[in-house]
Amino acid sequence: MKLLPFRTDVPWPIQTSPAETRIKARIDRVRCMSPPVGCDATRVNDESTPTGSDQTISTTEADTGQGAGPPRSGETGPGGPERRSGRIVMRRDAAERIGKPATTEDEQLLERRPAPRGRPEFVDSDPWRALRILSEFVEGFDALAAVGPAVTIFGSARVPPGSPDYELARDIARRLAEHGFAIITGGGPGIMEAANRGCREGGGLSIGCNIELPHEQGLNAYVDLGIEFKYFFARKTMFVKYADAFVIMPGGFGTLDELFESLTLIQTGKIRDFPVVLVGSHYWKGMLDWMASTQVAAGAIDKADLDLLKLTDDAGEVVDIIRTYVARAHPEDVAEAEIR
C-alpha cells in the first residue's frame, strides 16, 4: 500500500516548527513499525517525503528532542541563520560576538569539567552575582516577615560603651521594646550594640542586619536574630521595609546615607511618611540650620520637607513621637505591641 505524503505547503518564514517536525517523524515511524517489503524503517517515510524546504528529519534525530538547537543549513531568513537559547534569539554572528557557546544549556549544566585550582571564574560573573543578590532578599524577607511592629535605629559604630550617646540609644531602645517594638540595627558595635542591648533589656526582639566589610564587622553579642548581607542595598531594603520609624543617633557617612535615603523615599512617595527622629540637638542642629538657610533658600527643597524630621534629646519624647504616629497610622500595630 502506498503511503500518502505528509507535508505542509507553506513558504518561509512560516515553516514547520521543530515540535511539528518531531511529531511528523513519530507518525511516520509508527507507519513503518511493521515495514512492508522494501520499506526501510531507519528512514522516515522516505518514499512519501518530497525534497525541499519541508523535508522531515531522520527518526534518530527527531527522537533526541534536539530540533530546537543550533540551526541546520538552509534554515535561514531575512536576518540570516537563527539560533535560540532559552529566551535569547541570535541571528547572523550574534552568538559569536557575545561569546555564546554552541552547546545547549542542558549540555553545559551536565558537562563534567575538571576541578579548577582555586575559585572558579563563573562564581564571580554578573549572572551568578545576581542570584546571590536575589538570595539575600529572599532570606531577609523570610527572616523578617513575621517581626511585627519595629523601629530601626542608626548611629555610629565608633561610639564606646558607657558614653552619653551609647547610654541614650540603649535607653531609647529599652523603652521602645517595653512598648512592644522590635529593634532593628546594623548589628555592629557602638550605637548599634547599645540599641540591641537596650532592646534585649526591655524584652523585645533584637535584630541585627550585618554587612560584610573589609575590616570584618561581626554581630554584637546582643543580637537575637541576625542576618548577614554582602550588599548594602539589600540590607538597606530590610531597614526600610520592616520599620515603623527611624531613630537617627549621631553617626558618620553610613548614618547620613541611611538618613537621606529614607528622606528621599518619603519625599518621592516610595514609602509611607513615617517618623524620622534625629536624636542629639548638639549634633544635628547645624545640619538643619544649613538645610534651611541654603537648600530651602536655593529652592533645592521645600520648607515643608524639613517637617519630615523631628529633633529631640529626650528618650521619652522619641517613644511618644513614634507611638503617636503608629496609633494614628497603624492602630493594629499598637494592639499587637500591647499584646507583646
What does the model show?
The protein is elongated. The protein has 340 residues and is an alpha/beta fold. The chain has two domains: 84 residues, no CATH class; 193 residues, Rossmann fold. About 16% of the residues have low confidence.
Structural class: alpha/beta
H/E topology pattern: HHEEEHHHEHEHEEHEHEHEHH
**How does the overall form come out from the CA principal axes?**
elongated
- Largest sheet data: 7 strands, parallel
Percent in strands: 5-15%
- Number of folding domains? 2
Low-confidence stretches: 6-16, 30-37, 41-74
Major β-sheet strand ordering:
7-6-5-4-8-9-10
- At the first level of CATH, the class of the largest domain is Alpha Beta
CATH fold topology of the largest domain? Rossmann fold
Helix content: 40-55%
Terminal CA distance reads: 85 Å
CATH architectural arrangement of the largest domain: 3-Layer(aba) Sandwich
Oligomeric state as shown:
single chain
Overall mean pLDDT? 79
The tally of strands reads: 10
Condensed summary:
The chain is 41% helix and 13% strand. It is of the alpha/beta class.
Map the helices and strands.
Elements (H helix, E strand, L loop, with lengths): L17 H14 L27 H5 L12 E2 L2 E6 L2 E4 L2 H4 L7 H6 L15 H19 L5 E5 L9 H15 L3 E4 L5 H11 L4 E6 L13 E5 L2 H10 L3 E4 L4 H15 L8 E4 L1 H18 L10 E4 L2 H15 L1 H9 L1
Parallel strand pairs: 4-5, 4-8, 5-6, 6-7, 8-9, 9-10
Antiparallel strand pairs: 1-2, 2-3
Helix pairs in contact: 5-8, 6-7, 6-11, 11-12
Keywords:
340 residues, alpha/beta, Rossmann fold, 2 domains, 12 helices
